[in-house]
Amino acid sequence: MVQPFGARLRAAMDERGPLCVGIDPHAALLRAWGLGDDVAGLETFTRTVVEALADRVAVLKPQSAFFERFGSKGVAVLEQAVADARAAGALVIMDAKRGDIGSTMAGYAAAYVDKNSPLASDAVTVSPYLGFGSLRPVLDLAAEHGAGVFVLALTSNPEGAEVQRAVTAEGAEVAAAMLRHIAVENAGAAPLGSVGAVVGATLGDTGVDLAVNGPLLAPGIGAQGATPADIPRVFGAAARNVVPSVSREILRHGPSVDALRESAARYAGECRDAVAG
Ligand SMILES: O=C(O)c1cc(=O)[nH]c(=O)n1[C@@H]1O[C@H](COP(=O)(O)O)[C@@H](O)[C@H]1O
Q1: For an engineered disulfide with 134, which of 34, 130, 168, 220 has Cβ 3.0 to 4.6 Å away?
Q2: Where are the active-site residues found (predicted)?
Q3: Which residue's CA is minimally distant from atom 4 of ligand 1?
């Protein structure tokens, strides 16, 4: 029986530092690496990142969109990357941000968190904006397979506030309501629940209760302007559960494997220090 995702993530963060590196093969990055914006370029880029980092960072987070844009051949590259990264010891969060009615969420759950799926990942990102309850199939299947689910709560982009800071009929902000749902899912889990929240590192003091007993995925560091030093200000007492995530600001150091490793090691160290306070 595989350990729950939260326990595996805590162990990986303690051993390797809390950093998550995003694999986001933007067309501009492929060109900057001297690669074609095509499947061969995608394959080389992705293999290089996995080879450079999967044996040393806690988490890799492929952004599904950048693979899907090449159709089935791109998805095949994604499949291989997920398998290779996990084999090398990294946990993989599939950044798919799926969200649909419950019966369709069962399909997304089967795609990403069923351990027998070709795209089986350690965790997946989902959007709760069809209602938190619509996520039930993915929450349940993830629990059954020892996988995790990261629910968008307060995203790093400024436009997110329009929806996430809106006030519900009960008087709470939507994001706060989502965080409460997440806390309920994680109640009693130790050392860490397997249902995470996504909270941008760009946001400053969030004013919401981040004590959800689960991991807090914190994108926005690097290209979007946040730094590891922002972590204590944004997350306060919850900083220990933060998984800081960096994509472009590390990826731009390729194609040199050494330079990718150096950049990731620098961020991992800075994030470890920031989280420790
Ligand atoms: O779920 C995410 O990872 C995510 C949530 C969020 O609020 N903001 C955000 O930027 N992301 C993702 O994190 C990555 C950020 O990339 P960089 O800005 O290049 O570090 C992208 O793949 C985004 O899709």
Answers
A1: 130
A2: 97
A3: 219
Q: Whose CA is closest to atom 20 on ligand 1?
A: 247
Domains, in order of start, for the chain: 5-276 (3.20.20.70)
Beta-carbon contacts of residue 159 (< 8 Å; ≥ 6 apart): none
Active site residue 115: no
ipTM above 0.85, yes or no: yes
Collapse the DSSP code of 149 into the 3-class scheme (helix H, G, I; strand E, B; otherwise coil) and give the result. strand
The answer, as to whether pTM is greater than 0.90, is yes
* pLDDT tens digits for range 59-113: 999 999 999 999 999 999 999 999 999 999 999 999 999 999 999 999 999 999 9
Mean pLDDT across 147-161: 98
Structure tokens at 239: 């900083």
The token pair that represents 19 in the structure block: 């950093």
Average pLDDT value over all residues in the chain: 97
